[in-house]
Each structure stands twice: as structure tokens, then as C-alpha cells.
Amino acid sequence: MKLGIPSGASQGIIAIGMMIIQPLVNDFGPMVIATNVIVMRIDGLVMMPIFSFSNAMTIYAGQNMGAGKIDRISKGTKQGAILAVSVCAVLVAIILIFGRFIAEAFTHTQEVIDLSQQLLRILAPGFLALTLAMVLWGTIRGAGDATSPMWVAFINTVVIRIPSAYLFVHLLGRPEAIMLSMLTAWTVNMLLSITVYRIGKWKSKGIVKPE
């Protein structure tokens, strides 16, 4: 319950945030809605390995926390982050180079293909930032601190992503504004994850203390 409830709340907060932002996408009309679907499908392909690395770090941190090997957690997290960001960089390169062909698998409408390319270029650096954040949150959560990721998810969604989405759309009046808000939120998420990780309170949050 100590780990599960905050983790579930984090996912719930993010899902609610996406629901609140969806009307902004809908207001741009059918072409942008179709483009957003394609972008989110490609986004999901990149997210799968990112979440896999995060889950791996959760298990790794939990095992070593239980064994009292905190130094090993730090070393493994650094190696895991390098590996995860490297894999993500390859996927981002594939999307930037072959994104047009990937989009053509979903539609033959040229305007949708062009716009999806434009939106993915905005999101591309955000994938790298999110990857690092997810690896660090995986470690922190696995060490027994599920509360910090929950509060950061709340701040990142309610304070950063939703307001910035509406603000950017109001200022720019373009669908690219929504992707810019995601990029902003992912960058802030990365900075907060680094801050929480370096403060190091997660090192004393183990649920089961080693003998």
C-alpha cells in the first residue's frame, strides 16, 4: 500500500492532465486530431523501452536496498541512465530520419504527415529528458520512496503542463504549442528528478531494513 497508492496516484494525475489538455487538441479540428493520434502512437513506441528501463531500475534498486548495498544502487543507476539514454537517442534518430515513412503507415494525407513530422521534431529532445527522469524515478521508487514521484507528478502536471499548454496555445494559436508544453513539462520533470535524486533522502526510505 505504501508503494502502490502513491504510484497509482501518479499515473492517475498524469491521465487526468491529458484529459484536461485534450480539448485544446480538439479545438484545432480534425486534421490536428488525426495528427495527434499519429504522434501519440509513435510516442508510445518510444515510451515502451523508457518504461522498461524505469521498471528495471525499480527492481534493481529494491533488491540492493534490501541487501544494504546503497553504493551499488548509485553505480547501477548511472550505468542504467547511460544505457537508457543511448537507446532512446537511437530511437529518436530513427524517428527524425524515418518519421515520414512511419507516419505514412497511418495516413496518406500529406498535411497530416507534414504536421506530424513538425510536432515530432519539437518532442524529440524531450524524449531524452524524460528517459533520464524515468530512470531516476525508477531508482527512487524502488528504494522505497514512492511519495516524492507522486508530488512531482502533481506539480509537473497541475503547475507546469496544463497551464503552459493553455498559455502557449493562447499566445501562439498553433498546435505546436501543445508539444511545446509537453517538452517544457518533461524538461522540468528531469530537473526535479535530478534534484530529488541528488538530495538523497530516498536512501533512508527502505521499507525492509537489512539485518
List descriptors:
211 residues, mainly alpha, 6 helices, 85% helix
Detailed description of the structure:
With 211 residues, the protein is mainly α. The protein has one domain. The chain has six helices and no strands. The protein has helices at residues 4-27, 30-66, 70-104, 110-142, 147-172, 176-199. Helix 2 (30-66) packs antiparallel against helix 3 and helix 4 (110-142) packs parallel to helix 6. The longest helix has 37 residues, at 30-66. The radius of gyration is 18 Å and the shape is globular. The two termini are 23 Å apart.
| Helix and strand run | HHHHHH
Number of domains: 1
Describe the main β-sheet briefly. none
Radius of gyration: 18 Å
Number of helices: 6
User: So what's the overall shape?
Assistant: globular
β-strand number: 0
What is the CA-CA span between the terminal residues?
A: 23 Å
- Secondary structure category: mainly alpha
Arithmetic mean pLDDT: 90
**Helical coverage, percent range:** over 70%
Strand content: under 5%
Query: Which stretches of 5+ consecutive residues score pLDDT under 50?
Result: none
